[in-house]
Amino acid sequence: MNKFNGNKFKMDYSQFKTEVSKRRRSAATRELTKIAYSTPHSVISLAEGMPNEETFPFTEISIKLNDGSDFVLEGNELAAALQYIPSQGFPPLLQVIREFQRKAHAPPLWDSREVLIVAGGQDGLSKALEAIIGPGDPILVQNPVYPGVNVVITPHNAELIPIEQDDYGVIPICLRKRLQEREASSLKMPKIMYINATGANPTGTVMPLERRKQIYRIACEYNFLILDDDPYHFMYFTDEAPRSFLSLDTEGRVIRLDSFSKVLSSGLRIGVITAASPLVASIELHMQSSHLHAPTLSQVILYKLLKIWGYDKMMEHFRRIRSFYKERRDLIVKVAEEHLLGIAEFSVPSAGFFLWIKVPGIEDTWKMVMQRGVTHGILVAPGAAFMADTSKPCNAIRASFAKASYKEMNVAIERLALLIKDELAKNRSILNGNT
Ligand SMILES: Cc1ncc(COP(=O)(O)O)c(C=O)c1O
């Protein structure tokens, strides 16, 4: 496949790439694997370094689904599932995922985009950012931000430009103001913005459509890409389904990241990048130099599931997940209102897994959480871990409502309240000079 065929976006993508990314070349062996998958069966390949599946100890993998259906991988199908594949992904899965994305997002100029299977959202995130963020490059981030971004770009001495959020996500006027200030001071302008439009980690906000449109217009005006890392896209608790940035992307500047971690299994390690073909081609080259491709077995399992269920049953599954987590969201909000009244503040999360709790009486929650949390029998995440500048104090805490049982959740929030009260009492005592 020539990835540049049919690219109708009028964008020069080389302006966004790092020097390292521009220097990457494809490995001939990887290209041969791609060719081998697209040639007729009559062609005999002696070109690749594939092992002979007859030597593998596995003869059958059978999988039962909780809806009563099942499937078996054996013979040629099992052999394919245990073998090397092209870096872009298992070809039959790529076809199904393309159709899935087209239906779910109806992206403009669909033929100018490609999908790429990655080993989870974090893998996609790191490869996408490393194609674009080089030493000292600035990147716009929602603040607070998912720490998986910091770990990728901090070693590159990249500059994080934090943009304030409210209960509806990143605030467009703050974004514009920050860009205007940089331009006026002749500072390097950002090439990309990182965002979680639905169920932001850690705040749980969902950005309304009008705001998404405003941010997209600003991206066009200031010529930056939008990396929408959106693993909670189908896990919204709002009445209306959110519309993705991809669905608004007329100029080919959105890199959409999906993950199956939260909706099928995090252990499968499967995610999808959907973006303009030249951007996907750059990221694929990076995969060729690292893990070659996302695990084939996981890709085949996902393929079989999507074939058995089809789009509609997958959507039905997402609907069930939404009501499952919404019930948990309601419960944590209820117990937090009960136990944290007067000592902490929070907004009701509109999607995702997390309650973002602010404790106005404590300047920084880090030590309280990391040093004294366990002795109080409670583990939560300290807010500073999610700050664009992690060295700054932060009075927030992130609590997940995804996994603990209802009973545990109640006890956990009760213990958190005690931990906070003890900390507040300790601070008061220090203020009064009683060390
Ligand atoms: C916003 C965000 N991005 C990426 C990830 C990583 O997920 P994956 O398991 O798909 O790598 C997470 C996981 O918590 C997340 O919350």
UniProtKB/TrEMBL annotation:
Coiled coil stretches, renumbered: none
CC cofactor: pyridoxal 5'-phosphate
Family matches, as Gene3D superfamilies: Type I PLP-dependent aspartate aminotransferase-like (Major domain)
Domain Aminotransferase class I/classII large residue range list: 80-416
One Pfam short name: Aminotran_1_2
MF (Gene Ontology): kynurenine-oxoglutarate transaminase activity; pyridoxal phosphate binding
InterPro entries: Aminotransferase_I/II_large, Class-I_PLP-dep_aminotransf, PyrdxlP-dep_Trfase, PyrdxlP-dep_Trfase_major
Alphabetical GO biological process terms: alpha-amino acid metabolic process
Keyword rRNA-binding: no
Keywords recorded for this protein, A-Z: Aminotransferase, Pyridoxal phosphate, Transferase
Domain of life: Eukaryota
Keyword Transferase found: yes
Protein name: Kynurenine/alpha-aminoadipate aminotransferase, mitochondrial-like
Species of the source: Ceratosolen solmsi marchali
